[in-house]
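User: Structure tokens for this complex, please. No commentary.
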Amino acid sequence: MWIDNYFTINRKSRIENADIYDVELNPDSEIYKGHFPGEPVSPGVCSIGMIVACASRSIGSPLEIHKISRCRFLSAISPQNKPDLQIRIELTDAVLADKKPGKVYQIEASIKHKELVCLSLKGELAERPGEV
Amino acid sequence: MLREEQIKSLIRQREPVILIDTFFKPADPEYYTGLKILPGNIFCREDIFSAEGVIEHMAQSSAAMLGYLAAGRNEQVKTSYIGEIRDFELADNPRTGDFLETIIEILSEVMDIILVKARSHIASRPVASCKMKLAINRNVDRQLFYN
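Assistant:
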């Protein structure tokens, strides 16, 4: 899967109700061959994928996007101009939802580069089969 | 109908990120795209195509539509960026071997900001839907964008 070598988590900490992940983008990811040739910009969905990966680590079981009520892309991310990012994950307790075999978590998350908010997301993640 | 190589004239994404392989004849304001999900697609986990893949497919479908419209005006195809996603809901994950189809409908168009509704399905089975705001120019006015 694409996300596997896309970024590295360097540090995890907890502030109040949120988990904070310090991550670093991998400029050698094959994604940048096509997004875009000669102009590496991190695809918005890769940022969403990093949030899902961090949330899965927080819960300890693999999750997937079930709903996004709102996701704002406030500033473009690339391994050239913003290689080090801080991902903030806040999850509520799990509930059982319609049509889903596993648990569903409400999530509020953001991605920052230093003090600049690059992305904010509010939605629901559902458990999926597989490994974190 | 446009296929693989011709689609590269509509979008700026290139392999391995390209997530549309068919652009059907549009019926304004609706535009139709497709993707056969092949084993080895980088947005798959084993044989399951991820929600992120579905969203990127929707975004590229919108980009292809914008590219098609630009070509019709004899303009250069520009890069478009996702600015906002709203009300995305995944009903069912596509799997390898499935042909994912998407309908893009333009809801509004103001300056360089386009609001679309995207609906994806496999045959008659709904996969996902959302509303997406795209910016054609990366430096669009933030106030205009999020109001």
